[in-house]
Amino acid sequence: xxxxxxxxxxxxxxxxxxxxxxxxxxxxxxxxxxxxxxxxxxxxxxxxxxxxxxxxxxxxxxxxxxxxxxxxxxxxxxxxxxxxxxxxxxxxxxxxxxxxxxxxxxxxxxxxxxxxxxxxxxxxxxxxxxxxxxxxxxxxxxxxxxxxxxxxxxxxxxxxxxxxxxxxxxxxxxxxxxxxxxxxxxxxxxxxxxxxxxxxxxxxxxxxxxxxxxxxxxxxxxxxxxxxxxxxxxxxxxxxxxxxxxxxxxxxxxxxxxxxxxxxxxxxxxxxxxxxxxxxxxxxxxxxxxxxxxxxxxxxxxxxxxxxxxxxxxxxxxxxxxxxxxxxxxxxxxxxxxxxxxxxxxxxxxxxxxxxxxxxxxxxxxxxxxxxxxxxxxxxxxxxxxxxxxxxxxxxxxxxxxxxxxxxxxxxxxxxxxxxxxxxxxxxxxxxxxxxxxxxxxxxxxxxxxxxxxxxxxxxxxxxxxxxxxxxxx
Length: 474
What we know:
By secondary structure, the protein is of the alpha+beta class.
């Protein structure tokens, strides 16, 4: 699965020059992040970390990932509408995981009051690795699906141009011409714009709900600018702004500073540290409103690891997607082995299996955002500690995917240029819009390739481990 620039990797002067060109190209293209020192100001910015060269991706697996995305959109949407499935699946988790329990309480409260929202917008990203199993043939295996605040659709829209420039400079113009166009920020904005249009108020705004610390603002601005280009007004607010200034009228229309809000696009709210009591109250206010939430709380719950594990049980996909045999087959083909640690004989066996051979598995808590999974000796120690406690039900166990490493250079500001053995993770962005029971948009909106050195088990670009990349299809 090698890319056709093995010769270049050994040519140190050429690599040094290419790295210099790459950094300037990234700055020119806008592949930017704010700095750790000044995360809330754009006076000083730097390039987001990225690979020097594109990484080889098998064409057949790339096409498979795109082909299954509309199926995953339908699946997430079906789960979000199935109160009984969410209740049964998360029953053990909400007893031991306060964060999931609080989300679920809001979900139930909103349903009991009656949903004010009639238009539903889903933006997700399904992440995969290429597992080289026993015979070495790579297979597409899903790591997870992110149903809230799926990031880097903006910056990855600008990364292929950087890699194209580097390849041309290295005398690889033919290969540069084969890099695929990719613009998720446009696709995500199309979904938001459709939801805004169906909401039905020309004067209403789109509200980006953003974090207190906003290093990754340029990624969001890419999507924001696509909306401004369509004359859709965008405001950026935090949970605390919603708590202080948000209100609902009698028809449950949401207002911020006197402006009606049509769509709430979450780039925040996916981990416990995002919430204090005021923020939970703000979240409840948003959920009770008529505004289109991306995601609504049911869709956020659909993205939990426990749901992912439950989907792998025989018969579950068929129940959620009745009559869609081909979609079920496509989805199931991407699943790695997933195991429940619920209290009982089955969970006891699974825990013992993982403790005996921890290098074969990943232990995953109910968290988004990277950097949370446990591997190897750490996995064994944690499982031994909680094996006889209900706390183990807040985790799921997954087979460890074993991709084939490749050589590349990872470019990070203020870090020396060094060659690394790397593995990559492919994400496909999905966008769908539903009005009542009618699906009015369902599409794959682009891709994201992230690459990290093999010594880093877990974590994404925002977590400081993976870097942006471009697929080169082989």
